[in-house]
Design a protein that fits this description.
Layout: H1 3-34, H2 41-56, H3 62-79, H4 83-107, H5 113-124, H6 127-136, H7 144-166, E1 180-183, E2 186-189, H8 190-212, H9 214-224, H10 226-231, H11 236-259, H12 268-282, H13 288-308, H14 313-319, H15 321-330, H16 335-338
Antiparallel strand pairs: 1-2
Helix pairs in contact: 1-8, 1-9, 1-11, 1-12, 1-13, 2-5, 2-7, 2-11, 2-12, 3-4, 3-6, 4-5, 5-11, 6-11, 8-9, 9-11, 12-13, 13-14
């Protein structure tokens, strides 16, 4: 391996690591607030890719009708929950899905990336709160293992739904830019730079959100002490819905970004989500900086191993969990780690 090949592989690994970082951040947000290891996040990533690809081809994605069906059920449940809950339900699960449906029917024939990407995000993002509402909120106080089993079951359900809605074919999303840059002897694609830039912007935006906005501070309080947050009046259901909504938006955005680099099928998101989970585990499921370092490490290690030992690429990446878990089990954990 010469220096040019090495730097090209590192560039590819850093770009992929940025995607894994997004997924790791989503996993950390959901787990810290609800104790749910959000395995279906990879399926939402695939939904984001396939929905965007369908819109780019001028078709209305099947995920739109899935959203409308789930929203109708949520609206029906909200109507029996009192006047205030009914008003919120009408706005969230009546007006919003109707607006998205109308926008898709009107704008999908344009086949424009400036239209298809926002619409794909608008379709997939509400699925996070809906998953929380119907799957996890009724069993929110269950043990972590029970929630993990439920998350795995939901992954298989969503994978089957994805096969029905999109079929087994792979699809790709439009690139954000076709520009190319030359740095010394290395050629950097504009798409890779855009992926890293979007990732950095999202991380900075989340930093502001958690530090300056009232909703971000609510999530921080719920993540720090769930019981204490309830005692001071923070609605556990609302904070869980917000956490799942953020994770769904991040997953859909990651799907749009990675879909421009490599085509994905309905079941491709699971493997990508697992690598994001490896990055989150490196962070102990509590540390965002360590998860970021872990995501870059996983991306670079995967890229280099695909050159040296492509047949064992997945084995090498997931073997990374063994020393990390051994180290986490030996060090003294904090109260958040034991929760």
């Amino acid at each position: 391996m010469n220096w040019f090949v090495f730097t090209a592989l590192v560039q590819d690994g850093v770009t992929t690591g940025a995607i894994y970082l997004l997924l790791a951040v989503g996993l950390l947000i959901v787990f810290s607030v609800t104790r749910v290891i959000f395995v279906p996040q990879g399926d939402l990533l695939a939904f984001g890719t396939l929905s965007c690809a369908a819109l780019q081809s001028g078709a209305v994605p099947g995920t739109l009708w899935l959203l409308d069906g789930l929203a109708a059920l949520a609206l029906l449940a909200a109507l029996f929950g009192g006047r205030r809950a009914a008003l919120r339900g009408v706005l969230a699960w009546g007006v919003y899905p109707a607006a998205v449906t109308a926008a898709c029917l009107l704008l999908a024939p344009m086949q424009n990336a400036l239209v298809s990407i926002p619409l794909a995000l608008a379709i997939v993002t509400p699925m996070g709160p809906l998953i929380w509402r119907f799957a996890f909120r009724p069993s929110a106080d269950a043990p972590v293992l029970a929630l993990l089993i439920l998350a795995m079951a939901l992954h298989f359900v969503l994978a089957g739904v994805g096969l029905v809605l999109f079929g087994p074919e792979q699809a790709a999303t439009p690139t954000l830019t076709d520009a190319m840059f030359t740095v010394g002897s290395l050629t950097v694609s504009g798409q890779s730079a855009a992926v890293i830039g979007v990732c950095a912007a999202l991380v900075l935006g989340l930093r502001w959100f958690f530090g300056a906005s009232i909703h971000g501070k609510v999530l921080r309080a719920a993540a720090s002490d769930r019981l204490g947050a309830r005692l001071v009046g923070i609605d556990a259901g609302a904070s869980g819905a917000l956490a799942f909504g953020l994770a769904a938006f991040i997953a859909a955005l990651a799907g749009v970004l990675i879909g421009a680099l490599t085509p994905l099928s309905y079941d491709s998101g699971f493997d990508i989500g697992l690598k994001g989970f490896v990055a989150a585990i490196i962070g102990g499921l509590v540390s965002f900086p360590m998860a970021a370092a872990g995501a870059v490490l996983v991306g670079v290690l995967e890229s280099l191993s695909s050159f040296w030992a492509s047949a064992y690429r997945e084995v090498i990446v997931f073997t990374l969990l063994i020393p990390v878990l051994a180290w986490l089990s030996l060090r003294s954990g904090s109260a958040e780690d034991r929760a």
